[in-house]
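Re: the 568-residue chain
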Amino acid sequence: MGKTIRRVLTSGLALGAAMAGAVQAADGPGAAVFESFTYRGADPAHAGLTPGDDTYLNPILQGFYPDPSITRAGDDYYLVTSTFSYFPGIPVFHSRDLVNWTQIGNAIDRPDQLDFGRLGLSRGVFAPTIEHRDGVFYIFNTCVDCGDNFVITARDPAGPWSDPVWLPDLAGGIDPGVFFDDDGSAWVVNNGPPEGPPRYEGHRAVWIQRFDPQTLTTFGPRKVLVDGGVDPSTNPIWIEGPHIIRRGDWYYLICAEGGTAEGHSQVVLRSRSPDGPYEAWSGNPILTQRDLPRDRPYPITSAGHADLVQLPDGSWWATFLAVRPYGDDMYNTGRETFLLPVDWSGEWPVILENGRVIPYALPRPGLPGQPDAAPPTAGAFEVIDTFDGPTLPPYWMMMRNPRETWFDLSRHPGALTLTPRADGLGDNANPSFLGRRQQHQYATAETELRAVPAGEGELAGLAVLQSDEYWYSLAAVRRGGEPRIELRRRRGPGVDAAGEVIAAAPLGGEGPVRFRISARAGAYDFAWARAEGGWQTLLERADGEMLSTRVAGGFVGAVFGPFAQSAP
């Protein structure tokens, strides 16, 4: 399934610092100590495709990296994506060639910037927009059910980013973005309710208003630019993710339309003025995969939510989200970030002609090459976290804001220590669980636990999770004083928040114990091993479709990671 690239990470950037303001949790005798964490994956769609000096692979950011927005500052490019109720939030990536992306931080990395409370994992921060102007970076975003629309700023895109400045004029809207014109004026565009009562489900509008970059406030009248979509007679749904681009004397408004599932698309309109009136192009959409045969090999679907960037040579490129399903629109990896060149040879930009499939490999942009990203984000690869740095790498996430510090890298150097607490994976809380994205349909996650938890009923092990309601956990636990391995599953909100035991085996010792979860599209295998022994399969071909967006719902993707929980 393609070449596997090995990467060993020995230090991180900021996740430990992100919890600096949290209260320290007690490190009792049940503390779970994990020696390392390995993730590897390779997909059939990339078999035989090797990125080189002249080619790159799609997606450029595999796994749950949706709603990408991109900006250029000189020879540097910066990209952000959605993270919803995960913390830290809004990863910030840097590249100089649009192909190799390195995460340099997270814009929401302090627990007091936003409060996700007990929100569902698919609430929180939706669809950020990043822009650069006069030495300042701006991120516009919406915290759904946790404060509404806001802007944050930074001089250094790696951070720190400011606390949110709220934009009350945009109340009830999502997907705010900013456009800076050549005359110094600035404008905010966003998705919002239509002016009158909605005519149908999904009826939305795109609004515009002036913005003051000095005071970070909107002012003046708000105006509707697009009501419903490019062809209101068809009752189009979810016109969103708006961006304005100036090219010559024309202002181009690009938006997503059709919702973020298989009907997703990107459309374009233009005007002689930022605030309209806008005329839709007769050739819309400028990107979609919705009319292609569903039985095509290795399909890429649901493409849209694009942002455009111009290179020094005058060419244009687009980042956008799409998914790689297996079976009947099943995907566990979430919505991912893709890259395509934009054909602007005519009067209108075209990301991909209608009827063409999104390619997995194509020629690189005309930019100087740079070293491969570490860790890699595209193709087949392996990443090993050895936990011997002062902080965790920035791609590790937790569910919602921390209220206390429950993980540590210093108490046992070269290992990750988790403090077990009462909150579990299904409690809509902030459990002692750290997740990293599943980035391949065919993937394996492994970790080693130093010792079985000492307390009766305490759990420590490895989980794969799509949401609070849909997950598996493979853990060591003591029952009646005897150590054993338990596989628990929660398949929907009708199941107890603690899940149910679906397989178990005696451990036959105190540890160390290794855990392995392997994904094969819609099937997952669960195995364990004593440190000196071979792997023993606990359950093979378990239902993996329950970890898909189609079954679990929401906007995120599956994550793997170590966890610990105290006894009830």
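Confidence is low (pLDDT under 50) at residues 1-6.
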